[in-house]
Design a protein that fits this description.
133 residues; alpha+beta; 2 domains; two-stranded antiparallel sheet; 5 helices; elongated
């Protein structure tokens, strides 16, 4: 005798009466490897990055480019400039924002602000405001 459970869509087979009960479908190691390579964009038949319809190449914005680099460039323990253990940020070395991992580095916030010249710009703008008033 079959057991049925009445739901919003009608009757369902439950428990041992379900046709999928006890069937354990698992992927082979080869198919698992293919799936993981496809997720990384390294599968030999399909490159997820360059073949994707939304791929912009080098004309991508700053935020998506930072995310792309963050996924591919390993984060070290220490800042590259001051060798201190702080929260690290991604910094672009050439300020051209190229899709090249050599052009990026992980540094602390203080070193990042000093390298970008944002401290100088902040001081100049605050001096201009004081002179205007």
């Amino acid at each position: 005798m079959k057991t049925y459970l009445k739901g919003k869509r009608g009757h369902y087979n439950v428990g041992k009466n379900n046709s999928q009960y006890g069937i354990h479908r698992k992927h082979s190691e080869e198919s698992k490897m293919k799936m993981s390579l496809a997720q990384l964009g390294k599968h030999k038949t399909y490159n997820l990055n360059e073949d994707h319809y939304k791929w912009k190449g080098d004309s991508v914005g700053k935020r998506p480019l930072h995310e792309w680099v963050r996924r591919r460039l390993p984060k070290p323990e220490l800042c590259k400039h001051c060798n201190e253990k702080k929260d690290l940020e991604l910094s672009n070395i050439s300020n051209k924002y190229l899709r090249d991992l050599i052009d990026w580095e992980w540094i602390c916030r203080k070193c990042h602000v000093n390298n970008d010249g944002r401290i100088k710009n902040l001081l100049l703008s605050s001096r201009r405001k004081k002179n205007v008033v």
